[in-house]
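Q: Give me the 3D complex with NDP.
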Amino acid sequence: MRKTALITGATSGIGYATAYEFAKHNIDLILCGRRLERLQTLKKDLSKLTNVHILNFDVRDKDATFKAISSLPEQFKTIDILINNAGNAHGLDPINEGSIDDWDAMMDINVKGLLYVSKAVIPQMTARKSGHIINIGSSAGKEVYPKGNVYCGSKHAVLAITEGMRIDLNPYGIKVGAVNPGLVETEFSKVRFKGDKIADTVYQGFTALQAEDVAEVIYFAVSRPPHVNIADVLMFCTAQASSTIVKKDV
Ligand code: NDP
Ligand code: 8X3
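A: Here is the predicted complex, encoded as structure tokens.
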């Protein structure tokens, strides 16, 4: 039977690659993000492979989030798989120099946005007693690194919320898991460093994970048999041993 997945943050990076990976496997898609043009291009491209609906909203906006998800047409109303992926780091500063706007953005998007989308989707899953939620955490949710403070805090929260969801949704047979990558070469560093050219150096001297590598793991998780739940995955590129240890070519 065909399944429908809602992916937040589908306009770039891991979410974008996951949309392609799922489309290849005939999963119907609800693709979300703020950049409408990118969503429209994705719809045009992926409609050749599967059924696609786009939702253009900011996960920070609670009302817009609920309105968008409740506006889904009949064909897309049943969401089997939720990929809570939208998120970013904003800034890399010691806590004493951090910007409150950056802190707000990370907590509002990575934590509260994930909760808003989940709150809008979970009731239909509990009613049906089925569903699968994958939250995109990070190695930063398992290990704090210098200047990572609030981003790491937001991703630690994602992992705690994931565990809480798995416990509370267990009576309903809903699968909940987290995929936690280390360094992935996406637009992540462009956003973190706000366009500063330092972003170009982050993935230099080693082969970072690519968004497609993470998308394959996400697809692996959603394609397991009903009795198997991939609860938590930590993935690094081979050059990375921990948040701070990366073997670079000199
Ligand atoms: P990208 O910057 O490439 O993608 C981020 C996505 O999130 C975009 O599609 C963006 O869409 C969406 N997004 C950001 N803010 C909002 C918002 N307010 N409302 C709705 N959508 C939003 O980064 P990645 O693909 O790397 O990041 C995806 C996830 O993976 C994040 O949760 C990130 O923390 C996590 N991650 C990334 C790692 C990395 O090294 N790259 C490693 C570990 C985890 P738009 O701008 O169109 O709204
Ligand atoms: C993204 C990976 O190490 O930049 O979550 O925090 S890292």
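A quick observation: Strands lie at 4-7, 28-33, 52-56, 81-84, 132-136, 175-181, 184-185, 209-210, 232-235.
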